[in-house]
Amino acid sequence: MKVARDNLNPRNPKLKISISIAVFVLICLLAIWGASQFNQVGIVWYSIVPPLLAITMAIATNRLLTSLGVAVGIGIILSSVQKNVGFEMPWFLILGSEGWSISKSVIGTFNLSVIIFIVLILSMISVMIISGGMQGVINWLSQFAKGSRSTQLVTVLMGLAIFIDDYANTMIVGSAMRPVTDKKKISREKLAFLVDATTAPIAGLAIVSTWIGYEIFLFTSTAESIGIDKDGYSMFFDALGYRFYCLMMVIFVFVNVISGRDFGEMLKAEKRSHSNGAVLAVDATPMTSKVFSTLSHNPAARISSLSATIPIVMLFGTMVTAFWFYGGSSGSFWSWTTWREILSRVAEEGNNVQVLAIGSGVGLFTAII
Do 280 and 318 fall within a single domain? Predict the structure, then answer.
């Protein structure tokens, strides 16, 4: 009986792989059947194979990057089939042609700016940690974070404060609060939820943020294409009350933190963390590199919160200046109308991420000096 139970255990690798393969095949068969029934031009059943393969492989093998790599490779081959290139060309020429297209996309201005921004801001955070600045911030926050509930509330409030960009919010708040939440025996699962719940929802509600600037550009383009006599910002405000996910998530995270009530898997994670201090599950695989997560300040460094707050202020100050420069506005700096035009213009020209990259570069330079 024990052997039978072990074989049926969801953690059994063979069972997990078997179920993943069965689900993959079943969905593919359903897609084939659906394609034969509807027979729409330009739609092929195997378009679902790459994402489906990535998901099922990741579940079966617990190897995310390998799964994504295989899925991308299969996607390259299938896309060539869709273009009627098929196998008339040698396979290595097909892969080379599609690979070159992907590489051109990766090294494009937007994607390259994203990569540069991430590298620079992570470098800035690393310097802030080593110089003792982040420890100074942690020491300052610790006077407000007396217990588990107050620590979670501080995390949420920090997420609300850094509203101008969701990328920066995630990396700065997560890095600053991780040592504090670990000390208060708050599970990493809960920290991840608190950070995530105050990034995208806040960026989607803030009237000034990099994401809203992009949305305004999309609204404006849509209004022009369908003949609506409204600007993008007006449409954003019209839609603001219908952002149910953003609004409900912000409400929920405050209710959750203040009430201290969890449920499901989060409740299990919190019980584990509070009972034996295991903030990470035994079988957890953190996405953060081991080097970055174990990074600490130099023993000889002077602990001061200014070593972290000044680079962050410079980061956002430079972003505001860069927005003003790229937006090319000559109106009042304190006017909402002026900033509405600036954000829309910067998004329209695709300079949002370049602004982030410039700001993180200045922040890194400030942290170093």
Answer: yes
